[in-house]
Design goal:
The chain has 492 residues and is α/β, with parallel strands linked by helices. Helices cover 25% and strands 18% of the residues. The chain has helices spanning 7-19, 24-27, 63-70, 85-94, 123-129, 221-239, 271-293, 314-320, 366-375, 391-394, 469-485; strands at residues 37-44, 73-79, 133-139, 167-171, 183-184, 187-188, 194-196, 199-200, 206-207, 210-212, 245-254, 300-306, 341-347, 356-358, 362-363, 407-410, 416-420, 423-426, 450-453. The strands form four sheets. Strands 1, 2, 3, 4, 5, 6, 11, 12, 13, 14 and 15 form an eleven-stranded mixed β-sheet that branches. The chain has a four-stranded antiparallel β-sheet with strand order 16-17-18-19, with helices on one face. A two-stranded antiparallel sheet has the order 7-10. Helix 6 (221-239) packs parallel to helix 7 (271-293). It is globular and about 60 Å long. Mean pLDDT is 93; it is low at 1-32.
Length: 492
Amino acid sequence: MNGGMSSFAVNRRRFLQACGAAAAASCLPAQAKRLPNLLYILADDLGYGDLGCYNPASKAPTPNLDRFAQQGVRFTDAHSPSAVCTPTRYGILTGRYCWRSSLKRGVLWGYSPSLIEPGRRTVASMLQSRGYRTAGFGKWHLGLGNREKTDYDQPLRPGPLDFGFDSYFGIPASLDMEPYVYIEDDHVVARATGHIGERNEDRGVFWREGPIAPGFRHIDVLPTLTKRASGWIRDHGRRQRERPFFLYLALTAPHTPWLPTEPFRGKSRAGEYGDFVTMVDDAAAQVLDALQQSGMADDTLVIFTSDNGAHSLPEEIARWDHRANHYLRGQKADIWDGGHRIPFLARWPGRIQAGTTCGETICLTDLMGTMAEIAGYPLPNNAGEDSYSIVPALTGQRLAGPIREATVHHSILGHFSIRKGEWKLNIGRGSGGFSEPIEYKPKPGEPEGELFDLAEDPSEKRNLYQERPEIVKSLTALLEKYERQGYSRPMR
């Protein structure tokens, strides 16, 4: 913030004023006070309308997450920075929009080299420097090693251990991407000495042909990750309870392949996808139960969210009458809100008021700024460039204005949009993703982009691009400024 305080300082001052001087020590961890644990659960392709707490008409039962929502705060205007997985994961861990990196569109694959730049601060490395024990489980999907094609016979460096994680267990990329192996820390658990053919029975049960490790079964991955993460929490509670932890759990579901295990088959009214969503709900419950049983729930900020919108096709909506992205236009990969507006639930006993709802616009890049404030770590200007602290929104403070000046969205094909207040500007026309029209070339006299007033038109149906040229000009200039200067949050 030129000529003023940093966003950290501003939010901290607001927080202390809201809490009162006498209660400040219990609201924000001081240097001498034990810092809170952080458990971050990231679903894969879970839509805004999948959970019952967002969409009462959902055909997928999610009783555990609905109950979790009642124990904390439910955000109604949370967004992923991208409408697909790799760039969102980059944004979560670095606090930086992925389009600032070498990845300008698309996603990485199972043999892609590491995307995170050497030496870049991540949420994990920041918290590690503050004494946290850091662990990751699940879908990495940020590349491994520094060769053009990852060599799984060599140490997987750079990898999670180079970006702040003390330990990591999971899979390299999406569950439908080869190679099909588990990785632990900087090596594979078992080499991919076998080969599996493509499975493409229908859209939901799909994976690509490729190398596979002995004993690796796609259907086992979600239960395995759930068990490993739950076991880690219990072990921490027994052995290192006095040390704060950061656990990043990146689930592999309900992304394809849709593989609900027998106890969940037929539990929804939305086919295998709905059954898989119900299994995700149960996986989250198992991890939360482990936290409760370990006696650490009261000292832990738990966040549950998704990396982007659901991959929900019109024919599936027609068949099951299940709207995974609720009333939003578009789906995963799209620039429209169905691609990136996501569920976001948070619980922090004693700090977050139970049963509350927040309409503040937030972004998954905000994890770094939020944890920096909680941990008492002023972010330098070369870290978390697009990350704001959402502590005020979590704790229900009255704010004079929005936390974020604006939020930039990105589609799988690299289409941009920018959101400020209730105005959303899409640069160009078409979804830029999976929905038709993907690319649209305006005819003479037609608007070149799309402008929506989300307060009046949350489904993005009425294009006001030509009616409000002053808004188009202002938002275009702000996006160009963010691109040009290399950051969007206020700097010191």
